[in-house]
Amino acid sequence: MLHLRVICPPERTGAVRDVLLTEPGVTHITVQPGTAVQPPGDLIEADVTREAADQLLAALRHLDVPRCGGITLETIDTTLSDAADAAEQAVPGDPADAVIWEELITRTGEEARLTVTFQVFLAIACVLAAIGAITDSPVTVVGAMVLGPEFGALAAVAVGLVLRRGDLIRRGGVALAVGFPTAMIITALATVAFDATGLLPAAALDQMDQVRFIYSVGPFSFIIALLAGAAGMLALTSARSAILVGVFISVTTVPAAAFTSVALVEQRFDDAWQAALQLVVNILGIVVAAVVVLMVSPRARAWRGSGKWFVTG
Questions:
Q1: Which of 89, 219, 245, 311 is the most exposed place for a label (fewest CB within 10 A)?
Q2: Where do transmembrane segments lie in this chain (predicted)?
């Protein structure tokens, strides 16, 4: 279940309370008049099932609570309550399958920001993948896959396309368009340094039997990307974030970008083209699959209000 905290002016407390009471998926409702200091107002708390959260948030937005107060939603790890069990049973569906669109928008929006941390992680992942390719070490390449932060940006683009949120598309697109080229330039410089210090023998790239999948584009490349994109978006929408690790290992976005830089420095242009194609195929496959998953997810309608898109369940 989820814990809901609402701060609102006293004149809206009755309406908020009525919304909570009429929702069968809400329980443990408490009202503390005059408790909130900044912003001033009443504090209302309740526990909400995941299946009811999206519709409830839409109703609170309709009351204009975010503008005059605030809404906070947190995950509850453990709940021992017959009332909570009854609330879970009163709402159709399974909590793991519920999509909380506001949560998804916030999460993907944050993870798609082009920050220094995002760029550093992506650059380290690419250099690590380059070393894995040079040393023919699949373990190192897999480590680079897990380290790469690019799925958040790809997910933001997918969410933006489905909800027609240009801000999410731009944020994710900028993170990818700037992040990958910058990481590839850093990887190219690292490759030059490896050449200069003798860490990259001339024949090293001829002995990549274990990691040849990085630049070997085939019919399964797009299929794997589709499956990974679908699994990744399902993990984001169903609160099964642990599955994302498997998604990162499945796709070769970071290794393909890294090897493109290595191959260009070593003037292996055919290999560089294949690796670049692998990168594009993976990115397109992930986004396409994520969009399809979101389009078939439970959602009734989207409407535009206060300059943003909101969704009801």
A1: 219
A2: 114-135, 141-162, 174-194, 214-236, 243-264, 276-296
